[in-house]
Design a protein that fits this description.
heterodimer; A: alpha+beta; Ubiquitin-like (UB roll); four-stranded mixed β-sheet; two-stranded antiparallel ribbon; B: alpha+beta; Aldehyde Oxidoreductase, domain 3; five-stranded antiparallel β-sheet; 3 helices; 9 strands
Chain lengths: 88, 170
């Protein structure tokens, strides 16, 4: 088993002010499977989190690239979950 | 072949400093887009804004977008992009984009392209603070559904960018 640290931004900070969660992984997962795990964690452990779409509208990314939904999370230990963006 | 300088910063953007950004000696045009915090959104009075940003990926997207713009319009362009994060007041500069080129048309096209692409591709989020004490994260564009805007696909006008999604308070 290993742990992945995931940074959270934007609207996620309403629920997780630290901007960081840790997910324990047993199996190898794709990005979309990891998002389901994140959704489960937030629903089960974060009081007041009832948003059923925000996680799935968000993209997993490293510091250099946005990951495709089917990409396998293998050697990546630090990720970010990026909700829909609105710079400018 | 022209320079690209990009930055995400919590420091105020000093326009007098960035406007002396060097043009090439063969450049006859400098175009500057400046985004500022306005006092309203979707009928609500806004008194301030907080920008959140994933800095390393954000600066990478700025560089990629600027490189694309040079490739489309002027390989020789000099481009400067700076975006704020943290808390801003109404009237503060949130983003500044400068392009210097040989002729004016390319500089207009480059700054327009860069701001429209930043809005849909760069990991930046903004939280509005309203007069009544409430706050809300501005609804944006999903990165996982992102497609690059092609200026020429739309006959030279953009259909993407701005607050095109309904505002939603989360």
């Amino acid at each position: 088993m290993r742990e992945i640290e995931i940074k959270l931004f934007g609207a996620f900070r309403n629920y997780v002010p630290t901007g960081m969660i840790t997910i324990k992984l047993v199996d190898q997962l794709t990005a979309i499977q990891l998002k389901q795990k994140i959704q489960n964690l937030l629903q089960n452990q974060i009081k007041g989190f009832q948003d059923s779409t925000l996680v799935f509208e968000s993209a997993l990314a490293t510091e250099t690239e946005v990951l495709d939904e089917g990409e396998v999370i293998n050697d990546k230990s630090n990720l970010a979950l990026l909700p829909p963006v609105c710079g400018g | 072949m022209g320079n690209i300088f990009v930055k995400v910063t919590s420091d105020p953007v000093c326009l007098s400093e960035i406007l002396i950004f060097n043009a090439g000696t063969n450049h006859g045009a400098m175009n500057c887009f400046i985004g500022i915090v306005r006092n309203n959104n979707w009928g609500r009075k806004v008194i301030g804004m907080e920008y959140d940003c994933f800095i390393p990926l954000c600066e990478k997207t700025f560089f990629e977008i600027a490189t694309e713009a040079k490739g489309k319009w002027c390989k020789d362009a000099n481009i400067f992009v700076v975006h704020r994060y943290g808390k801003l007041k109404v009237g503060d500069t949130s983003v500044a984009i400068i392009a210097t080129t040989e002729h004016r048309n390319e500089s207009y096209c480059i700054t327009r392209y860069i701001i429209e692409e930043i809005k849909v591709r760069s990991p930046i989020w903004k939280k509005e603070f309203y007069e009544d004490g409430e706050t809300g994260w501005v609804r944006g564009h999903a990165l996982c559904q992102h497609r690059k805007v092609d200026y020429h696909e739309h006959g030279g006008s953009y259909t993407c960018g701005g607050e095109v999604h309904p505002h939603e308070t989360r």
